[in-house]
Amino acid sequence: MVQIGFVSTSQFLEAFRNVLDTMGDLETDIPRIKTYVAAFTARAIAQNIMTLGNVAEITDNGNHYPFLLLVLQQLGKCMEKTDICKLFEDNKVITTFKVN
Question: Which fold has domain 9-90?
Answer without folding.
Answer: 1.25.40
